[in-house]
Amino acid sequence: MLEMQHRVRNILAVVRGISRRTSETSSSIETYAAHLDGRINALARTQTVLARAPAEGMDLETMIADELLAHAAREDQAVLSGPQVALTGQTAETLGLAFHELAANAVKCGALSKEFGRLQVSWSVEADDNLRLVWRESGVAVASIAPRREGFGRELLQRTLPYALGAKVDLHFAPGGLVCTMSGPLARQAGESFEL
C-alpha cells in the first residue's frame, strides 16, 4: 500500500506539472485541451506498460514505436535501430513525454508532416553504461521547424531531462530537419543489473 501511495503521489505531481506548464504555453483553451490530452495519453501509455511488469521496465524501441503509432506516422517514414534497452519507472515516464513532444512536433511541422520527410532514431549503450540516442529528421526546410518561442517540449528536453535524469541534450536545427541527441545514464540493457 505504501508503494502504491508513493507512486500515485508521484504520478499526480507529474500530471499537475504537465497541466501547469501546458497552461503557461497555450494560446487558447482549445490548444491547452489538445496538448494536455496528448501529454496525459503519453504518460498513460507508459504507465500501462510499466504496471504490467514493473520489474522488467519498458522497452525503449517499443516506447518510441508506440508514440509514433499514436501520432499516425507512416511505417515507411521512420527507422528505429539500436540494442534492446529497458527503462525504469521515472526514466520511462520522462522519456515517454520527451518522445511524445518530438513526435508531435515532427507531425506538426517536422519530418512527419512532409510526404518525403523521414525520421531515423538510433541508440547505443556506451562502455560507461550511458545511453546515446539520436533523433534525426530529414526532408524539412529548417525555417519551417525552428521554434519561435520556447514551449513545453523544448523545456522538457533541455531542462527536465538534464535535471531529472542527468542527461545531456543537444537540439540542432540542421539543414533538412531537427537533430536531437540525448546522452546520459538513462537506461539499462536487457539482462544487466544496474538501476537508475
Commentary on this structure:
This protein is of the alpha+beta class. It contains six helices and eight strands. A hairpin with a 5-residue loop joins strand 4 and strand 5.
Structural class: alpha+beta
Could you tell me the number of beta strands?
Answer: 8
Assign a percent range to the helix content: 40-55%
Low-confidence stretches: 188-196
For the structure shown, list the relevant keywords.
single chain; 5-stranded mixed β-sheet; 21% strand; 6 helices; disordered C terminus; 3-stranded antiparallel β-sheet; alpha+beta; globular; 196 residues
Topology:
Blueprint: H1 2-25, H2 29-52, E1 58-59, H3 60-70, E2 78-81, E3 85-87, H4 89-108, E4 118-125, E5 131-138, H5 142-145, H6 152-165, E6 168-174, E7 177-184, E8 188-189
Parallel strand pairs: 2-4
Antiparallel strand pairs: 1-3, 3-8, 4-5, 5-7, 6-7
Helix pairs in contact: 1-2, 2-4, 3-4, 4-6
Write a compact overview of the structure shown.
The protein is α+β, with helices and mostly antiparallel strands and 196 residues long.
